[in-house]
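[Meeting: bench + compute handoff]

Bench side (C.D.) handed over the final construct sequence. Compute side (W.E.) agreed to return the predicted structure before the next meeting so the bench team could plan truncations. Sequence as handed over:
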Amino acid sequence: MSRYMRRAQIEVIPCKVCGDKSSGVHYGVITCEGCKGFFRRSQSGPVNYQCPRNKNCVIDRVNRNRCQYCRLQRCMALGMSRDAVKFGRMSKKQREKVEDEANMVKASRLNGLNQAQFTTYQTNGYNFQPQQQQQQQQQIQQQQQPQQESQFLTESQLYSPNSSIQPVPHPVSLLRAVEFNPINLGKAITEAHLRTCLYSNEQIEIFKRQILPQEQVEIYKNLTHRQLWVEIADKITLAVQQIIEFAKMIPGFMELSQDDQIMLLKAGSFELALMQLCRVFDAESNRVIFGNMFLPLEAFATLTDEEFHLMSAIFDFVKNIQRLNITESEMAMLSALILISSDRPGVKEVGEIQQLHDRILTALKLEMGINHAGDEHILKRFVEQAGILRSLSARHIRVLNAFKEEAPEIEFPALHKELFSIETETILPNLH
């Protein structure tokens, strides 16, 4: 493989230190230019970095400059060393390892939901193995240190809602929905929901107890409009990755044609992301989980007026859903109903989608009959909110397209671009 090809392979893999776009192997580790320069400066003379918190700060693209001590410790833990530059070219074994990791990263990004890639995706699922291996190492290190409520969760805690469960499709996803009675169908969808949530209820409670330093809020307040959009797009993409996994595990979804699967995901992914938002918003403090912290809404200070009005409408919707006091099982089945809707523009096998929708609706009615006995109108109230949900999705596409016209040079994640493209506006209802 040519030197150029190897470099292209390496740059697919995010920076091991902060997750930003990498530029190659520096001091023995795949990193971005920022972390390369930071490590070089730290080795140029005596340093006396101090951690202002618990020596366990999360190092990511946004806050990597906030704690030099933890950033340097992370560099060294990953194996960065001045001596590493003396070893010259990578060995054949090292090259093969990098190539394998690059291929897995490419697969995990689901570069567009076209037919061939979607087939590969549904067969193999996402494979985040390189990141998971790194996260497992972090977990081992953390277990050796006492945990304190005030410290921030690490990436390994964020994106593995249940560490004992691997993010692969459960056997129930291989069964047809018609093979399930309504009760078991509801249980299967609930399991799919719990296995694919970005955050468990326990993690959400930990976030609530954390005390967020004001300087952390100021970091987000001081982001430019474009930087904030990139951060929001990254978080939405993380949520959508899990939503696709959820869809794959709904009994019957994978039996639909690939064209219909794609159309349902394009039309419904943002709506399901807003449903997930209902789990991570604290109405009492007006805060939402954003990355690895409960962030007050005031932190999104650089939104335009139109974007701010959309954000306000979104959280009004979230508050209305929270007032319904629905359970996790009901949340799961409501999400499945939103996704599997036969009236989505562009779907072809309307009858099959409607049959699956009706089976899920039957399961949901049974569940609501148990948890909301005497409340005959709860489902009707949710249906009313579902109309608002579609309107919010259409508004999101419009503000996104307006931003893309303003900042055409901004590069969004591939999955985000595919699901929320300009063309997506044509498959959404024209709601105002």
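W.E. noted at the follow-up: Residues 1-5, 109-174, 424-432 have pLDDT under 50 and may be disordered. C.D. will use this when planning the next construct.
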